[in-house]
Amino acid sequence: VQLVVTGGGLVQTGGSLGLSCAASGRTFRNYALGWFRQAPGKEREFVAALRWSSGSTKYADSVKGRFTISRDNAKITVHLQMNNLQPEDTAVYYCYAQDALGISWGQGTQVTVSS
To answer: Considering just the CA atoms, what is the radius of gyration of the chain in Å?
Structure first.
């Protein structure tokens, strides 16, 4: 399984950034795609996920109302639109894909929010 992540970077407080994650390599069955993040000195934490079959989404409380996960139906790709970013959103963001066979991770991408 390959998960290719694009996006991220540096933004000022209150700004916006977008991340994308394209999955390939095998046929997924009843899978979810989503994002975790890990800030320096902290454990990796869940951010958002989308279940492909239903389109249902789930968010961490800390990002609800600011982040939106969406999908590209033409290909197995999810996007994470991050608005009103805060310094506490600074972290390395990781895409993941999970189904009954297990979980796969993409490479991390840095998101830095300056105050």
So the answer is: 13
Closest by Cα among 61, 66, 65 to 45: 61
The token pair at 13 is: 């407080």
* 3-state secondary structure at position 87: helix
- Tell the residue number behind the tokens 């959103």, with chain if given: 89
CB atoms inside a 10 Å sphere around CB 91: 22
Which residues, listed in sequence order, are joined to residue 2 by a DSSP beta bridge? 24
Distance CA 60, CA 43 (A): 14
pLDDT tens for each residue of 30-74: 789 999 999 999 999 999 999 988 999 999 999 999 999 999 988
- 50-85 burial code (b ≥16 CB/10 A, e <16): bbbeeeebebeeebeeebbbbbeeeebbbbbebeeb
Decide if 59 contacts 80 (C-beta within 8 A).
no
φ and ψ at 19, to 5 degrees? -125, 150
Are the CB atoms for 59 and 74 separated by under 8 Å?
no
β pairing state of 109-114 and 9-12: parallel
